[in-house]
Amino acid sequence: MDAPADSPWSGTGLDARTGRVLEHLVAVPSADAAEVASAAGVSAADAERALRHLADASLALRIDGTTPRWAAGPPRSSLGALLARRRAELAHAEVLVERLQEMYETVSGPRAAHLVELLEREQQVSARYGQLLKGCASEVLHLAKPPYVTGSEASAGELGVADGVRMRSVYETEGFTDAVSLTTALRGTGQGGELRLASGLPVKLVVFDRVAALLPVHGDRPAAGSLVVHSPALVEALVALFESVWERAEPVSLSGRTDAPPPTPEGPLPADTPATQEPDPRTREILHLMATGLKDDTIARLLKVSRRTVQKHVSEAGTRLGARTRFQIALLAAERGWLEDH
Question: What is the pLDDT of residues 305-314, one digit of tens each?
């Protein structure tokens, strides 16, 4: 019986009882079984078994006489030989473990491929993304953050997502540097898609119908390859991650909605307001961002201007349009075509 893992004899293959017997033998010239049992605190039968085991391992020598006595062999040479045998056994065991591991990987490899796919080239990622998106029947969940890979991040409309598929996207706020970036994000949500903005997104991610997920192998190098995850447990965890990000993200309303109620004026609008006068590019850009639901602080950060500058442009646009609220400004600007790309 092997020694417990915390026994000093565990590395030799001797159990603790036999080790105590050997410790007594090396401390005396010789001893009979009764003396060994008393000194080691074991029964006479256990002492006999331990002594025979030591003799078989060449660690003890039986001295015949009227009452047989036992003497220990030189510990360094006798235990050294035992440890050498143990090392050889461990080496053989390691070879066996490696062979078993190779067999396991050979059998498990095809199974693992059904749980996770590795896409090593950008073209593979783009093609697989389009295939998964077109196969969606109910829902697409999307976390988008820079750096972007153009080939694999085409908009849903361009890839022909099926009608009725609900699309929810959260874009990295810091990823927008101008109105063009925001327009791309709005287009990428597809017809009727929902868009939100959040800072510090944890990962780039797309989840398809909650049965498959696509994410990069290296978050900072999306072109270095991606993983397609099919494992139900992993997909469920990624969906939970998306939902937590979605809850804290800031909603962005689409400026082209037709179901919004008409504005309710707080009073008569000036009749001589130069509403037909075209705004300058900066005002048009600020109105475009404001119409999506962004706050003044966010717009100022995106355009690298002061909050006061944003408010000044919005106020001047309101005067031109004869609008008294931000909602009126956004609606009337959309009607005048001020929010369209030029």
Answer: 898 999 898 8
